[in-house]
Amino acid sequence: MTPVISPGLSRRIRGARSIVAFTGAGVSAESGVPTFRGADGIWSKLKPEELASMGAFMKNPSMVWEWYAHRKKIMSGITPNPGHYALARMENLAPSFAVITQNIDGLHRRAGSRTVYELHGNIERNYCMKCGTPYGDDFVVASSGVPVCPACGGLVRPDVVWFGEMLPEDAWDASVRAAEGADLFMSVGTSAVVYPAASLPLVAKRSGAYLLEINPEPTPLTPQADEYLQGASGVFLPILADALEGARRLPHSHT
Ligand code: BJW
Question: pTM here?
Answer without folding.
Answer: 0.95
